[in-house]
């Protein structure tokens, strides 16, 4: 990888965390160690969920049709503008609409009523939040662009890659300027949604196409309090309104205290979301990214 790469791949010396055989106490793995080992065992090749109707189980096809029917009853045939996402009318009964509906169904294990409730709340949120037009807004975060959260390139399967690196907030002045009060936090969350919306514009929304992104989050130098304040809201907002938009969530430069932080935001994540996590401690960054991204 060349020097212009968005994330440094400089490795740190290997540390030996093994326990001596002479140790009188049995070795008990920490939560984060177990999480890392589980991630290491996972195959590096991501297989996109199928969006071909012919590949669905009969029960899944039935759920998709039921969701279409319920959505039509809720919004009516003349509500095309109110019932659309990313410029795609959900009542159009075409393959792009089906891709979005299947994302909501998968997020709720094909429980039709739960999927409908999630979809309707998302449509309401997008209208209230102004998500359709947010990409064009100037939110005044020029200093964070290309540094904190940004889209950059594609992985080997063609998924757009979003990089996140919050280490700049170890600077107290920067932290206070961005997260100093509730209004500032809301504005940051809006900017973070803007970055994600830019990535979603790169997706195909069609069977056989690229329908999700890769998230790479660098935890190096990330202040713990920043995670406590912002992460719960970001994760909750994304999970509620952007179902199945992330193919993999790769954490790099994971510090020793990650297990504590993970316990804070873990309740906000579904099991399906957590299954997409890949954990890479310091020293394994290059290997992880080359295996999963480059």
Automatic annotation (TrEMBL):
GO molecular function terms listed in the Swiss-Prot or TrEMBL record: lipid binding
Cellular component annotations (GO), alphabetically ordered: membrane
Keywords recorded for this protein, A-Z: Membrane, Transport
UniProt biased composition (Polar residues): 1-21
Compartments where located: Membrane
CDD domains attached to this UniProt entry: SEC14
Signal peptide, first to last residue: none
Region annotation (Disordered) ranges: 1-24
Pfam families: CRAL_TRIO, CRAL_TRIO_N
Domain of life: Eukaryota
Domain CRAL-TRIO: 136-294
Protein name: Patellin-6
Source organism: Populus alba x Populus x berolinensis
């Amino acid at each position: 990888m060349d020097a212009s790469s968005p994330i440094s791949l400089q490795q740190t010396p290997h540390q030996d965390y093994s326990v001596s055989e002479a140790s009188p106490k049995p070795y008990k793995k920490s939560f984060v160690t177990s999480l890392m080992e589980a991630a290491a065992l996972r195959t590096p090749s991501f297989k996109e969920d199928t969006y071909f109707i012919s590949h669905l189980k009969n029960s899944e096809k039935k759920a998709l049709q039921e969701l279409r029917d319920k959505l039509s009853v809720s919004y009516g045939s003349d509500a095309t503008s109110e019932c659309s996402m990313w410029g795609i009318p959900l009542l159009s009964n075409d393959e792009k609409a089906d891709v979005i509906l299947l994302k909501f169904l998968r997020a709720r294990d094909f429980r039709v009523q739960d999927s409908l409730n999630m979809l309707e709340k998302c449509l309401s949120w997008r209208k209230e939040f102004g998500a359709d037009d947010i990409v064009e807004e100037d939110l005044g975060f020029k200093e964070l662009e290309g540094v904190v959260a940004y889209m950059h390139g594609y992985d080997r399967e063609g998924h757009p890659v979003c990089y996140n690196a919050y280490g700049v907030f170890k600077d107290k002045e920067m932290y206070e300027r961005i997260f100093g009060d509730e209004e500032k936090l809301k504005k940051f969350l809006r900017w973070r949604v803007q970055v994600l919306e830019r990535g979603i514009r790169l997706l195909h929304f069609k069977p056989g196409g690229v329908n999700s992104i890769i998230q790479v989050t660098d935890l190096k130098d990330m202040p713990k309090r920043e995670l406590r304040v912002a992460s719960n809201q970001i994760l909750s907002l994304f999970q509620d309104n952007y179902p199945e938009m992330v193919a993999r969530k790769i954490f790099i430069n994971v510090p020793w205290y990650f297990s504590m932080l993970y316990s804070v935001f873990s309740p906000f994540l579904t099991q399906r979301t957590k299954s997409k996590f890949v954990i890479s401690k310091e020293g394994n960054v290059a290997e992880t990214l080359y295996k999963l991204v480059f």
